[in-house]
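**Sequence, structure tokens**
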Amino acid sequence: ACALNNSCNIVVIFVNFIFIGMLGDPLVEASFGLGVSYFMFLFMSLNLGCFEVTGIECAHWAGLSDEAARAKKIDKPRKMSAALAKGCILLCVVLVFSSLMFVYAKEVLIAISISVVNAIQTGAMVMSLIPGIILQGFNFQIQAFILAQGVTLPFGVANIISIVVCSCLCHWLTFGLQVGILLFPVCKTIMEVINFLANIYALLFSKGEDGRRVRENLICVKFADVKDGLGEFLCKGSKFIIGLYAEFLGFEFNTYL
């Protein structure tokens, strides 16, 4: 389930590439590939860093036994909910950066010597991805909170459904609606709506490894709870993002050069 959660985007992109290739337009193919790499390098890698640090923080508190929590006077639901709130703060910083880079994608690409025609098409594609990345960002934060409690099945099922639905719709979207280079943004939005529904289901009905429903560990926290250790959390998140991004950096240079 966790593997599917991380690879679903790649599978759908692969299917999209096949249908984009069927159009027989080299310009659209090149612009689509550029748009995908732009998405991966200027959002996906950053979002994964946010996901990882939130998941680790939530798992740290979720893994604490009830006896140990009582002995140390630790409120596990409050600590886990505060970790989720901190993750959302870090995510908002990433979303502001990514959204700005997506809005001005055309100008950025022209500035690094990408042809104007490519830049215009790619810019239109990545701008259409903004609703999808916002949904994905918050979906990943909620998933990190739920996965920390040992719940994985709803996400595995949701991602299988996403792959099947998007694969089945690709032909109609490509040749019926003729969405062209916007194929991935449309599929992305569909995927994230399905993931959002999976999150709601998991929160309401799934039980964690401790036998309690997941929603019981999600509570409203005070600002003081979120503020406590926020600087350390953001620093740790930044380290995760930098570490993950370094892995993609070589591929980014190769793509644009």
